[in-house]
Design goal:
This protein has one domain. Helices cover 57% and strands 5% of the residues. It is mainly alpha-helical and 114 residues long. It has a two-stranded antiparallel sheet.
Length: 114
């Protein structure tokens, strides 16, 4: 019975996250790992290059809305809205919670900040 419950939870995780969301989160994780502070537009551009069929009609606002579902918010700096307060620990938590493959190590601590 416990095995069935765990399988049901895992199946639910897959249903909660779209492929587009996973791509956006993976791109954000890559950029933050490289100490970049991207805008939603920069994430969109990278997403359109990697998955043109999915992101052809997306806007930067749609990217921002998608990331906000995971409690990822921008901070305004020099007139630009940047993803600068997002830590690797935040992204690792999201990866673990939703069962995503963002390419992050699970042992990232809360102090890992980019």
């Amino acid at each position: 019975m416990q095995k069935h419950a765990l399988e049901t939870i895992d199946a639910g995780k897959d249903d909660q996250v779209s492929g587009a969301d996973e791509t956006l989160l993976r791109i954000l994780a890559e950029k933050r790992a490289n100490l970049e502070t991207p805008t939603a537009g920069e994430i969109l551009k990278a997403a359109q290059e990697s998955e043109p069929n999915i992101f052809r009609t997306w806007t930067a606002k749609a990217v921002s809305n998608a990331l906000r579902r995971y409690t990822i918010h921008t901070a305004k700096a020099h007139g630009r809205k940047l993803y600068r307060g997002v830590t690797m620990a935040d992204l690792t938590r999201i990866q673990s919670t939703y069962g995503l493959a963002l390419g992050l190590r699970e042992e990232a601590s809360a102090g890992d900040e980019c």
